[in-house]
Amino acid sequence: MNTYTRIYSVVQHIPYGRVATYGQVARLANLSGQARLVGYALYRLQTCPPNLQPEIPWQRVINAKGEISYDAFRHGNDHRQRVLLETEGVVFDANGKISLPLYQWQPQRVD
C-alpha cells in the first residue's frame, strides 16, 4: 500500500462529527513525524475535479491546536472545511478553535 493510500485509509475511518489531527493521522498510517505529508496528501484531494474526488472526509483533519490550517493555496477550501465540519455538528469557539477533548477521534485500531 503506498503512502497516500495509507493516509486516505486512516482518514476514511474518522467518524462523522469527529476530527483528527495531521500528526494523529500520520501516526495511525505508520508515518510518525510526517504530519506535513498528510496535509499535502489531503490538499491533493481538494485539487481534483469534484467528479473525480474519492469519498474521503478530508475536512475532518485539523491541526494540533484544534484549528483549520489556513493557506492561500487552498482557494477557499478553508472556509468550506469549516462549513462541512459545522454541518456535522462540530462547534468552533470565538477564536475559531475546536475542542479536541470533545471532538477528537480516539480509535482503538485502524485496519
Topology (SSEs and partners):
Elements: H1 3-12, E1 20-21, H2 22-28, H3 35-46, E2 61-62, H4 77-87, H5 100-103
Parallel strand pairs: 1-2
GO biological process, one term: DNA repair
Protein name: Putative methyltransferase
Pfam families: DNA_binding_1
Rg (C-alpha, Å): 13 Å
Helical coverage, percent range: 25-40%
Our count of helices gives 5
Mean pLDDT: 87
SSE order, as H and E?
Answer: HEHHEHH
- Please describe the biggest sheet, giving its number of strands, its sense, and whether it closes into a barrel: 2 strands, parallel
**Which stretches are low in confidence, meaning pLDDT under 50 for 5 or more residues running?**
none
The largest sheet has its strands arranged as 1-2
Shape call = globular
Count of structural domains: 1
What is the strand tally?
2
In the CATH scheme, the class would be Mainly Alpha
Q: How far is the first residue's CA from the last residue's CA?
A: 12 Å
Class of secondary structure makeup: mainly alpha
Beta-sheet strand percentage? under 5%
Account of the 3D structure:
It comes from Gloeomargarita lithophora Alchichica-D10. One of its GO terms (biological process) is methylation. Keywords: DNA damage, Methyltransferase, Transferase. GO terms for molecular function: methyltransferase activity. It holds the Pfam family DNA_binding_1. With 111 residues, the chain is mainly α. The chain has a single domain, classed as Arc Repressor Mutant, subunit A, CATH 1.10.10.10. The protein contains five helices and two strands, in the order αβααβαα. It has a two-stranded parallel ribbon with strand order 1-2. Helix 2 (22-28) packs across helix 3 (35-46). The chain is globular and about 40 Å long.
